[in-house]
Write a structure and sequence with these properties.
Blueprint: H1 11-15, H2 21-33, H3 35-42, E1 56-59, E2 66-69, E3 74-75, H4 77-81, H5 86-89, E4 93-98, E5 105-109, H6 110-126, E6 134-138, H7 143-155, E7 158-161, H8 168-177, E8 182-186, E9 189-191, E10 194-196, H9 198-207, E11 214-218, E12 232-234, H10 235-238, E13 251-252, E14 256-262, E15 270-275, H11 277-291, E16 298-301, H12 308-320, E17 324-328, H13 339-347, E18 351-354, H14 356-365, H15 368-371, E19 380-384, H16 390-400, E20 406-410, E21 444-447, E22 459-465, E23 475-476, H17 480-487, E24 495-503, E25 509-514, E26 518-521, E27 524-527, H18 528-536, E28 541-551, E29 555-564, H19 572-585, E30 594-597, H20 611-618, H21 635-642
Parallel strand pairs: 4-17, 6-7, 6-8, 7-14, 8-11, 11-12, 16-17, 16-18, 18-19, 19-20, 29-30
Antiparallel strand pairs: 1-2, 3-13, 4-5, 9-10, 14-15, 15-23, 21-22, 22-24, 24-25, 26-27, 28-29
Helix pairs in contact: 2-3, 6-7, 8-9, 11-12, 14-16
Bound molecules: 5'-O-[(S)-ethoxy(hydroxy)phosphoryl]adenosine.
Length: 648
């Protein structure tokens, strides 16, 4: 290995693994050479009501992109995640819930999970939800959120989970786009000692244009909320006397499982659609191999179920494997910066999976917080969501993993359904900052921006994937053309990830971040277009351009250039107002970090904003602006540089 900083699998990791180096290499080679046979075998890990006879039927050929896996198989995901474990592990904890308030917790066994999910499913049915219907779930991180998801899966309804931090408007757009007639929410959520007015947000969303027939409300904080007769139902009342058994609906492998909205480089968020069979095989297989999950271990992924990481690695992957999955309602800094470590200590967590932004924030808080807790239960620690800088990786390895645990950096996306690039713990040596090597069946391709495939091992460019894998998204809800044009048009015959990357001489992948207009703020994906459209929605704003800039904790920060309507005054008060405005329009995660008043934006003569220049100024790298000769008014740039906001 060429790089100096290489962390080889420990003896313990090798002894514990499902794939040693040679096994990984062998399995990987086979997954590429004989995908049909490989995946037919891997798919046996889940229970099929009717076995498939066809394995792979996929094409990335533009414009006839079509992706089908196990297409004539029949199964039910909830039955796979619950029922099939009952005989062997009915009394084992399926979910350990740790509340926002350190005094609160709950353990849900597989037997209990079965009962809860069945009851939930029967309530949905009683309220007219049928196979194929969409159901929007807008919930705090409480067990009922996973009951709701699994209940939908049980009866064949398609869930659309909307992160509880999104605003009423963002929620309304997502309800409308997939035409959910039922919304599941809670009176309020709890985060960091504060309450989140979830039900009030739903009311607002339904006032602002979205439509729903039924709002099912879970009583969580118990505080008073408004209920609209004829539309809103308390779940606990609706569930009274409801049967605690509900047969699992036989689903075709390609029946939709969920829609999850994510940001793209243009326009409104898109509803990424995942289907049943391939997704579950992918979720279960990656969860087992990437974490080397062993029976009886306690596994904790700190994501929110509102993101894909929560879908695949809190709910579906771990439960399909009969794991104990920990679900945490709170935040890393409440009541203090020791919370994560206390929870690991308290529940004897063996596997911990979090985001680089949390690692950086907790690193900033100081290692004394980590040292207070006994972390000897930990065996593996992972990261996901954004590039992890080597300093954060090394701190994580030293202070959390005590140089004893395996550290994995996993790269994937909402669209990929699960992990695509990650070291397997017993097989692949880690290099801090690299997601290392591809998972079974995944063929990464590095392209020059012009689309030339880089065949040398050492290469740099944009990342695409050559062929389909079972967990891949099938389409964008209601807009297959957008699916095709977003991912398959730029580089014909390949899936384009939107990420830049470097491949080193050992074939390791180093993801460098998005190459499109998608930001990654604390591991949350946001489109610059969404923030711009929120800004220009303000009556005083005439134009806005948003770019990212490096941020120590969040990875990227949100930098907004704003031009006001003629006659408006450029003052600090208005900056605060705009910040609050964007929070209200999209949600707190989209709060602008820096706003720069820009009486003019750098445009070409044809009126196109030169974002490259805006990025450079925001990065405080105005010395290297490159060619500005095509600008309609080069003087604009001087003004931008002079008034730049990101000064060290
Ligand atoms: C980024 C989250 C570097 C990447 C699972 C990707 C990463 C986007 C990593 C997807 C990683 C995710 N290293 N970058 N290990 N993991 N990303 O859809 O830019 O919320 O395209 O899925 O996050 O974000 P999404």
């Amino acid at each position: 290995m060429s790089d100096q900083l290489v962390f080889r699998p420990s003896e313990a990791a090798v002894a514990n693994t499902y794939a040693t180096k040679s096994q990984y290499e062998e399995m990987y080679a086979r997954s590429i050479r004989e995908p049909e046979a490989f995946w037919a075998e891997q798919a046996k890990r889940i229970d099929w009501i009717k076995p498939f006879t066809k394995v792979k039927n996929t094409s990335f050929a533009y414009p006839d992109v079509s992706i089908k896996w196990f297409e004539d198989g029949v199964l039910n995901i909830a039955a796979n995640c619950i029922d099939r474990h009952l005989a062997t592990r009915g009394d084992q904890a399926a979910i350990i819930w740790e509340g926002d308030d350190p005094g609160t917790q709950e353990v849900i066994t597989y037997n209990q999970l079965h009962k809860e999910v069945c009851r939930f499913a029967n309530v949905l049915k009683a309220n007219g939800v049928k196979k194929g219907d969409r159901v929007t779930i807008y919930m705090p991180m409480i067990p009922a959120a996973s009951y709701a998801m699994l209940a939908c899966a049980r009866i064949g309804a398609v869930h659309s989970v909307v992160f509880g931090g999104f605003s009423p408007d963002a929620l309304a757009g997502r309800i409308t786009d997939c035409q959910s007639r039922v919304v599941i929410t809670a009176d309020e959520g709890r985060r960091g000692g504060k309450t989140v007015p979830l039900k009030a947000n739903v009311d607002q969303a339904l006032k602002n244009g979205a439509e729903a027939d039924t709002v099912l409300v879970i009583r969580n904080t118990g505080n008073d909320i408004a209920m609209q007769a004829g539309r809103d139902l308390w779940f606990h009342e609706a569930a009274e006397g409801v049967d605690s058994d509900c047969p699992a609906e036989p689903m075709n492998a390609e029946d939709p499982l969920f829609v999850l909205y994510t940001s793209g480089s243009t326009g409104r968020p898109k509803g990424v659609l995942h289907t049943t069979g391939g997704y579950l095989v992918w979720a279960a297989l990656t969860h087992q191999y990437a974490f080397d999950y062993q029976d009886g271990e306690v596994y904790w992924c700190t994501a929110d179920v509102g993101w894909v990481t929560g879908h695949t690695y809190i709910v579906y992957g771990p439960l399909a494997n009969g794991a104990t999955t920990l679900m945490f309602e709170g935040i890393p800094s409440y009541p203090d910066a020791g919370r994560f470590w206390e929870v690991i200590d308290k529940h004897k967590v063996n596997i911990f999976y979090t985001a680089p932004t949390a690692i950086r924030a907790l690193m900033g808080a100081g290692s004394q917080w980590v040292d207070k807790a006994d972390l000897s239960s930990l065996r593996l620690i992972g990261s996901v969501g954004e590039p992890i800088n080597p300093e954060a990786w090394l701190w994580y390895n030293k202070h959390v993993g005590h140089e004893r645990c395996t550290v994995i950096d996993t790269w994937w996306q909402t669209e990929t359904g699960g992990i695509l690039i990650s070291p397997l713990p017993g097989a692949v040596a880690a290099k801090p900052g690299s997601a290392t090597l591809p998972f079974f069946g995944v063929q990464p391709v590095v392209l020059s921006p012009e689309g030339v495939v880089q065949s040398e091992t050492k290469a740099e460019g944009v990342l695409a994937i050559k062929d389909s894998w079972p967990g891949q998204a099938r389409t964008i809800w209601g807009d297959h053309d957008r699916f095709v044009s977003t991912y398959f048009e730029t580089y014909k015959g390949l899936y384009f990830t939107g990420d830049g990357c470097r491949r080193d001489e050992d074939g390791y992948y180093w993801i460098t971040g998005r190459v499109d207009d998608v930001l990654n703020i604390s591991g949350h994906r946001l489109g610059t277009a969404e923030i711009e459209s929120a800004l220009v929605g303000h009556p005083k704003v005439s134009e806005a351009a948003v770019v990212g800039y490096p941020h120590d904790i969040k990875g990227q920060g949100i930098y907004c250039y704003v031009t006001l309507m003629a006659g408006e005054s450029y003052d600090d008060e208005l900056k605060t107002e705009l910040r609050n405005w964007v929070r209200k329009e999209i949600g707190p995660i989209a709060t602008p970090d820096l706003i720069q008043w820009a009486p003019g934006l750098p445009k070409t003569r044809s009126g196109k904003i030169m974002r490259r220049i805006l990025r450079k100024v925001a990065e405080n790298e105005f010395g290297s602006l490159g060619d500005t000769s095509t600008l309609a008014d080069p003087a604009v740039v001087e003004n931008l540089v002079e008034n730049r906001q990101n000064r060290p």
